[in-house]
């Protein structure tokens, strides 16, 4: 398969990234929420929101099951697409880790379908969904590293020094063999 992706970590605002696809930490209803979702929704503007309404109308209930991903246009963002993924609300179940990993894999699968070369992720589920960043970061990093994807750059855009430090520790940690 392709070369393994080594994620890039940056401190900053995901809404200002110049990438092919910005990842939105959405909810299963795909309706605008708080946190990262609210910021992306406001920055992307009305055309992107209208495209979300189209997806909601075309999909079942819920339109975005936890762990899955769907793309819309990016509107006013400096990107071509927004890839929305619904992370687990913590604590939900013993499947939380699998669902969080699935979010990252699903986003990269959609990115590959779109032909996106650069993708900017937030720290999914670590905001209002309550997932501890210390637990989430190693899952996110491992899922991206192990993904079979043609995406050239995965950028984690972290909004606090603490999140950046925790993600850096996860990135630099010795690799555990996957059995």
Brief rundown of the structure:
The protein has four helices and six strands; from the N terminus they run ββαββαβαβα. With 179 residues, the protein is an alpha/beta fold. The longest helix is centred in the first third of the chain and has 24 residues.
Structure description:
It is built from four helices and six strands. The protein is an alpha/beta fold. It has a six-stranded mixed beta sheet. The model has no long low-confidence stretch (mean pLDDT 94).
> Helix tally?
4
Shape verdict = globular
- The helix fraction, in percent, is 25-40%
Which consecutive residue ranges, at least 5 long each, have pLDDT under 50?
Answer: none
Share of residues in strands: 15-25%
Quote the average pLDDT. Answer: 94
Number of strands: 6
Q: List the strand order in the largest sheet.
A: 1-6-5-2-4-3
Order of helices and strands: EEHEEHEHEH
Radius of gyration: 15 Å
Helix/strand structural class: alpha/beta
User: Main sheet?
Assistant: 6 strands, mixed
Distance between the termini: 19 Å
Feature tags:
179 residues; 6-stranded mixed beta sheet; 4 helices; alpha/beta; 6 strands
Write the layout of secondary structure elements.
Layout: E1 8-11, E2 21-26, H1 35-58, E3 69-73, E4 81-86, H2 96-114, E5 118-121, H3 133-146, E6 153-158, H4 161-172
Parallel strand pairs: 1-6, 2-4, 2-5, 5-6
Antiparallel strand pairs: 3-4
Helix pairs in contact: 2-3, 3-4
